[in-house]
Protein: Probable nicotinate-nucleotide adenylyltransferase
Organism: Paenibacillus chitinolyticus
Amino acid sequence: MRIGIMGGTFDPVHTGHLVAGECARAACGLDEVWFMPANVPPHKPNAPKASAEQRWEMVCRAVSDNPAFRPFDHELRKGGVSYSVDTIRELKARYPEHEFHYIIGADMVEYLPKWREIGEIMKMIGFIGLQRPGFELQPEALPAFIRPGVRLAPMPLLDISSTDIRTRRREGRSVRYLVTAPVHDYIEGMGLYES
Ligand SMILES: Nc1ncnc2c1ncn2[C@@H]1O[C@H](COP(=O)(O)OP(=O)(O)OP(=O)(O)O)[C@@H](O)[C@H]1O
Ligand SMILES: O=C(O)c1ccc[n+]([C@@H]2O[C@H](COP(=O)([O-])O)[C@@H](O)[C@H]2O)c1
C-alpha cells in the first residue's frame, strides 16, 4: 500500500492537520495516512504542553471517523527524541510491503535541510509538501539533493496552528471548529491549555 506518514507534535491535533492529510491522500493516491505523534519533537525548544497520552488520545479521536486515517504510535512507544531518520529506517524495515511518503506543511519544507541526516532521509523516502499561510512553498530554494524528492499537493490555505489554539484556550476564547468535535470535547473535559 501507499502510506502517507503525517508526523507532528499534535499539541493539539487540529483541522489543518486533517485537511493536509486528506489533500495529500487525494493528490498522491495514498491508500492510508498514518498520524504519528512525536514523543519528543527534535526541533522544538519547549516540551509539549499536553502529555504524550493526551496528545495520543486527541489524535485517536481526530481520525476515528475516517477509514483511510490511522493513529500510529511508533514514536510514542519508542520514547526519546523522535528523529525522523530513525523512524523512517524502522518503518521501512518493519513494513517492507508498503511504500511510504512523508507529509509536511510549508514551514517544515523550509526546515527540511536542517533535519538530522537529511541526505540519508532523501535516499529513503519522498515528501509531500502542503501550503501553509505565512510560509512560501519554494522548491527552487531547496538544495538540489532535496528538491526532486519533494512533491507539492494543493491545499486551501488554513491559518490554524496548535500555538494559536493553545493561546485561545489560555485567553478563554473558543477553539470550536478549529479542532474536531471529539477533540474539542476532550480539551474542554480535561481543561487542557487553560491558564
Ligand atoms: N494549517 C496547516 N496547514 C498545513 N500544514 C500544517 C498546518 N498546521 C500544521 N501543519 C503541518 O503539520 C505537521 C505537524 O505540525 P505541528 O503538530 O507542529 O502543528 P503546528 O500547528 O505547526 O504546531 P505549533 O503551532 O505548536 O508549532 C507539520 O508538518 C506542519 O507543517
Ligand atoms: O528528524 C529531524 O531532524 C526532524 C526535525 C524537525 C521535524 N521533524 C519531524 O517533522 C514532523 C513535524 O514536526 P513538528 O515539530 O512540526 O510537529 C514530526 O514528525 C517531526 O518529528 C524531524
Q: What stands out?
A: Residues 2-159 form a domain with the Rossmann fold fold (CATH 3.40.50.620). The mean pLDDT is 97. The radius of gyration is 16 Å. The chain has one domain: 2-159.
